[in-house]
Amino acid sequence: MKKSKRFISFTVIFLIATLIFFMSISQLRTEFDVRVINGFSDNSSLPLVIWCSSEDSDLGGRALQERDDFSWRLRTNFWNNQRFICTMKWDQRRKRFEAFKVPRDVRRCSLLRKCSWLVTENGFYFSSDEVNWKKDFSWS
Known about the structure:
four-stranded antiparallel sheet, single chain
C-alpha cells in the first residue's frame, strides 16, 4: 500500500511539474505588433510598395499611399530566431530590411511590444511608442 501511495504522489508531482514547465515555455512565445508606415511627405503619384515575409509565412504585398500603414501581429517561435524581412520600393529606390528580428527587437520594442517603422525620403526610422523616432538606416 505504501508503494502505491508513493507512486501516485510521485506521478501527481511529476504531472504538475510538467504542466508548469510547459506553461512557462509557452510564456516565452511573446506577441509583438509590427507596423510599417509610409511617411513620405508627397508621394501622391507613386505609392510606397512593400512586401513582407518570414521563413514561415508570406504576408504579401501592399501599395501604401501617404500615411498608409502595413501592420501585423506575430508570436515569437520556441527557438526565438524569428524574423520578418520586408522589401520596399519607391520610384527607383529599393531596400530590403529586417522589420522584426528577435535578438534585436525583443528588448527595444519595450513593454508595449510594439515595433514601428516610419519610412521617409531620408530613411527608415524605428520607434517603440510612435512618438520618439530614431533613424536606423538610409535607403542606400
